[in-house]
Amino acid sequence: MKKFFERLAEKKILVSDGAWGTELFKLGLRAGECPELWNEQNSTEVFAIAKKYIDAGSDIISTNSFGGSPVKLSHYNLQSKAYELNKTAAEISREAAGDKLVMGSIGPTGKFLMTGDISAEELIDSFTLQVNALLDGGVDAILLETFYDIDEAECAVKAVRNFPDVPLICSFTYDRNSSGEYRTMMGSTPKDILQAMITLGVDVVGVNCGGGYNNMIDLVKELRGFSHNIPILVQPNAGLPETVEGKIVYSETPDVIANSVKSFLSIGVNIIGGCCGTTPEHIRTIRKIVDDFLLNQ
Ligand SMILES: [Zn+2]
User: What's the pLDDT tens digit per position in 13-62?
Assistant: First the structure.
C-alpha cells in the first residue's frame, strides 16, 4: 500500500487514465447493459482498454467497477455477484498495469440518504464489500469518483477506512451555477467539500467529470488556494457531451485540451487524466505535456 505514496513522491505528477465507459461503448456495450458484467463476460475487451491506457503512458489506471457496489448492481439484479465482479475488475487492471499502479474505482450508488432512500449502514456495508473485493483483486489505492453528496462520500470513506493504510482518493463533480460559482448537485461548495474530506482523512482530493478541461481550471485554482499541500487529482470530461446523429460526441480533442493541461500543472495538480469522452489519445497528449513540464522544472 506504500507503493502509491512512494510513487507519488518520486514522480511528483502521476498521469492517470481516461474514460472507461466511452471505450466500452466503442467495443459494443449497449445502453442499459451492466458495464461491470463485462469483467466476466468480455474480459478480453476490458483488458484491452486497461492496456491501451498503460501503453499511452498512464502511471496509474482505474478499474471497470464504477457501478460495482451491490446497491448499484441491484438495478441489474446482480448484487449477489458484486464480490466477484469487483475482484475480477481489479485483477484485469492489475495484469494490464504490470509495475504501474491501479486504483479501484467506486462511484455513487444513485440513492439518497436525505430522502430516506437508504440508510448510512446499508451504504457502508455496500461500499465495504466493494472495497474488500477490489483490494483482494490487487489494487494499490481506492478512487471514490463522481461523488456529489458529502454524506454518501462519508459512508464510502468509512468503508475504505475499515482497511488500514489504503491510499484513498475522493473526487467530486461540480457544475457552475448561474453566478458562475462551482457547486455539487447537492449545493456544496469546493471549500465545504475540501474541509469535509480533510477532516475525514482522505489522502487525495479530486475533481472529475463536469464541463470539460477549460471549465475546471478556476475550480482547481480555488481548491489549491484553500490547501497548498493536499494532493489534487483532476479528471475532466472531454467537454460537455452532445448528441450528433444519435451518437454522443465530445468536442475537446487532445489538441483542444493541451493548454488547459499546462494550466493544471502550473496550479499544482498531482494526478491528471480524464473522464467521459477522453481516450488513450488524450492520455498520450497529457503524458507528453507532463514529461515536458517535469523536465523544465
Ligand atoms: Zn465523466
Answer: 999 999 999 999 999 999 999 999 999 999 999 999 999 999 999 999 99
Query: Is pLDDT above 80 for 113?
Result: yes
Expressed in angstroms and rounded, the spacing between residue 297 Cα and the centre of ligand 1 is 31
d(CA 127, CA 3): 23
Return the DSSP state at 80: G
Domains with residue ranges and CATH for the chain = 2-295 (3.20.20.330)
Output the CA 241–ligand 1 centroid distance in Å.
Answer: 10
**Residues 65, 104 contacting (CB under 8 angstroms):** yes
Distance 112 CA to ligand 1 centre (A): 20
10 CB burial (10 A radius; 0-12, 13-18, 19+): exposed
Which residues are paired to 103 by β-bridges?
Answer: 141
Residue 126 identity (one-letter amino acid): S
Distance 115 CA to ligand 1 centre (A): 25
Half-sphere exposure of 186 (CA within 13 A, CB side): 20
Helices (H), the chain: 2-11, 21-26, 38-41, 43-56, 70-73, 82-97, 120-136, 150-160, 190-200, 217-226, 254-267, 280-295
Cell triple for 291: 514529461
Q: How far is the centre of ligand 1, averaged over its atoms, from the C-alpha of 229 (Å)?
A: 26
Cα of 245 vs centre of ligand 1, distance in Å, is: 21
Which residues have C-beta within 8 Å of that of residue 277, sequence separation ≥ 6?
A: 19, 22, 237, 238, 239, 241, 248, 249, 250, 252
Q: Provide the β-strand partners of residue 158.
A: none
Ligand 1 centroid to residue 209 C-alpha, Å = 4
Q: Quick check: 1 pLDDT over 80?
A: no
Cα of 243 vs centre of ligand 1, distance in Å, is 16
